[in-house]
Structures are given as C-alpha cells and as structure tokens.
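hey so i finally got around to running both of the ones u sent me last week. sorry it took forever, my laptop kept dying halfway thru and i had to restart like 3 times lol. anyway pasting them below in the order u listed, first the sequence line then the structure token line for each. didnt double check formatting much so if smth looks off just lmk and ill redo it

first one:
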Amino acid sequence: MLKLSGLTKEEVNEISKQIADSFFDYEYNSEDAGLLQYISTRENMFVYMNAIVTAAYNAGLLYTTSEKHEGYLMLSGDGVGSVGFSDGMKMISAEKKALGGFSNMKRFVKACFSEGGTIESRMRKAKRKFIRIEMLVVRKEFQKKGFMKQMLDYTYKLAESRNVPVILDTDDKDKASRYQHLGMQLDRIRTCDEQFRMYDLIKEVK
C-alpha cells in the first residue's frame, strides 16, 4: 500500500472524481438505496467526496494500492491520525451543499446515528481503541481482482500491530457480505430510514 503524498490539487480532484463515480454508479441490492437517496446527482456526489478525500489527503490518511491507483483506502483511529479541524469544517460545509441544505443534512446525520449510534460512537463510549476504515473503494475496472482483500489485509496487519480491532460501517447488504467473506464480523444492522440501513462490522484482535 502507498500513502498518497506530493499530489497537486488537480490530482486530488481526479481521485475524488474516481471515488465519487464509484459510489454514484454502484448498483445497490433491492433492499437498500443507501447514500444515493440523499445525494441524487453525480455533481453533488463529487462535492461530498472531494471534501472527504481532500481532508484525508491533507491529514495523511489516504492510501492507494499501487501507482496505478486501482483502489483507495482512508483510515483513522489509534496511531493512524485524524482529520484536522479546518478540513473537518470544510467537510461539514460540503456535506450540507451536497445534501441540499441544512434540513436535509440534519435528516441524514440523524439517520446515520440512529438505533444506538454508529459502531464508532459505541466503541468510544466503551473507551475502546480501534482503527476505522473510513472509506474503501476499488475502481470499477479493477474490481474482482483481489484489491479489496489487499486493502483489508493491510488494515488487519496494521491493527494487529497496535492490538486493536478494525471497524467500519457500510450502507448495502451486498457490501457487508463481501466484508464478512474477507474476515469481518457483522456487529449489528441499524434501520436508519426507508431503504437506508447501516451494517456495522468489526474484526476483533486475535
């Protein structure tokens, strides 16, 4: 895995576009509509993802599989780092714009934290350390070639070296199944909104 550095703004924007397109073009299963029911245009998906990618890059939290950039990984948590305050505020502003205003953002945030909160909030409440997968994306043309496993294995080894679990949440049952197939366990399913469920997953320390 390569930690991304030395990129121009245009290169960061191109990565953001690749990630936004991957999310926008994803075909959800029949039970889930996920993020797309809140962000309905490709342009707004780019606005949303560009803020996240820029913040992750600036904080040194953004990785890629190789020089070919087949996939991207954003991590946070114990010994990894976190997004800075300024970039965090920019993310909130971009989220509000992408979601179509404050009221829609409020509805989205409320949904995301429903039914007892995210797995991250519950881990923090229990005062447990962790590494969180904030984002894992394999570009469409490189899918089903082992890159998802490569990124997960890297994260697992990093977590093992710190003796902490890996956590993540995802908005689609099929995505959750793939993570389970590659070593994660389903912690819980939260019904957040109509056709919007969050699947909380964890890989405990061996």
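and the second one:
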Amino acid sequence: MPAKTVKAAIDELRNAVQSLENAIDGRFDRERDFGEFEGEVRRVNTDRSRLAQELDQSQFRANRLEEVNREVSRRLVTAMETIRAVLDR
C-alpha cells in the first residue's frame, strides 16, 4: 500500500502543478488582454483629445466666418444705400 500511497501523492502533486501552470497561463493571458485593453483606452483617449481640439478649431473658424459674413453683409447694405442715394439725386 505505501507504494500506491506514494504514487497517489505523486499523481496529486502532478495534478496540482498542472493546475498551477494552467492558472499562471490564464493569469498571463488576462494580463496581456488587460494590457491590450489599456492600450486601446489610451488610443481612444488620444483620438478623443485630438477630435476635441479639431472641434474647437472648427468652432473658432465658424465663429470667425460668421463675423466676417456679418461685416460683408453690413458693407453691402452700406454700398447699396450709397448707390440708391446717388441714383436718387
């Protein structure tokens, strides 16, 4: 019986070592997946920051174009009034 007990203990030890190796492999896989996830989050945040900056720049340009448009409109009205005044004389 002692031989079977030793053999059983060795088998249990092998199984325990195999379970430990599987757990370690699983942990490495999860760590790798987590690292990839973190990298993707960083890329998304970088893209978000870039897009926010581009949006701010576009909004600035739109506001500037609106100001220029108002100024051109004002000048056109002034020019039309001047032309009407000249024609009315």
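quick thing i noticed on the 2nd:
The chain has a mean pLDDT of 92.
anyway thats it, ttyl
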